[in-house]
Write a structure and sequence with these properties.
Blueprint (H helix, E strand, L loop, with lengths): L1 H18 L2 H12 L6 H11 L5 H8 L13 H25 L4 H8 L4 H12 L1 H16 L3 H7 L6 H11 L3 H26 L1
Helix pairs in contact: 1-5, 1-8, 3-9, 5-8, 5-9, 6-7, 8-11, 10-11
């Protein structure tokens, strides 16, 4: 789900940056990479404080009655998805922008001249034209997301655990090494699959 959300959000951003003037393009790219200037753990801890039951976001939602007194924005699957999208979105934007920058946008004008609508032109001309960028973005987000450990551990709690947390629990807490090994093998297969697909696409 995180990969799909990142792709949906990154596509229009990459389109907009690629169509911007050279000056604005540099500024927008700077905004995309600014989060990388801060340590990953610090950013996740910051989200932990933002989503905390006494944090600013929870207080705002309670003030407009969107969140109950006993409800929390933290330690659930929604928090994991939100923080994961924030973390991995730049990784999706950059390869999509790289592909969109090389795309010949005059092809969209030609498609519209031939009677295609804006959405049909986007789907039938633009998306196939940046296919390699899409595949790269999916792999870059999907592979690390599969083994994500820190984000679910800090903002997901018991309700937002992923396979990386399960492997750590089997290994360190339960001392069930066969189960941890089996889960690690399955994770490895899921990681290798998109990487092999991308290699086939580039062949």
């Amino acid at each position: 789900m995180v990969t799909a959300i990142c792709l949906v959000l990154a596509l229009p951003v990459a389109w907009f940056i690629a169509r911007a003037s050279a000056t604005w393009r540099s500024r927008l790219l700077l905004l995309v990479i600014v989060p990388f200037w801060t340590n990953f753990l610090i950013r996740v801890f910051a989200w932990n404080q933002i989503l905390h039951s006494e944090g600013p976001l929870a207080k705002l939602f309670r003030s407009v009655h969107l969140l109950g007194d006993n409800e929390s924005l933290l330690f659930n699957s929604g928090a994991v998805i939100l923080v994961s999208v924030y973390t991995y979105l730049p990784f999706a934007i950059l390869p999509l922008y790289s592909a969109a920058e090389k795309f010949d946008f005059s092809l969209l004008d030609a498609a519209r001249d031939l009677g295609a609508g804006a959405f049909h032109s986007f789907r039938s001309v633009f998306l196939p034209g940046i296919r390699k960028g899409i595949v790269t973005a999916v792999v870059i987000v999907f592979v690390p997301m599969l083994g994500s450990y820190v984000i679910p551990d800090l903002v997901g709690g018991t309700d937002g655990q992923m396979i990386g947390n399960k492997i750590a629990q089997r290994n360190f807490a339960d001392r069930n090494l066969p189960a941890a090994s089996a889960m690690s093998a399955v994770l490895t297969l899921f990681v290798l699959a998109p990487m092999l697909f991308r290699r086939k696409e580039n062949a």
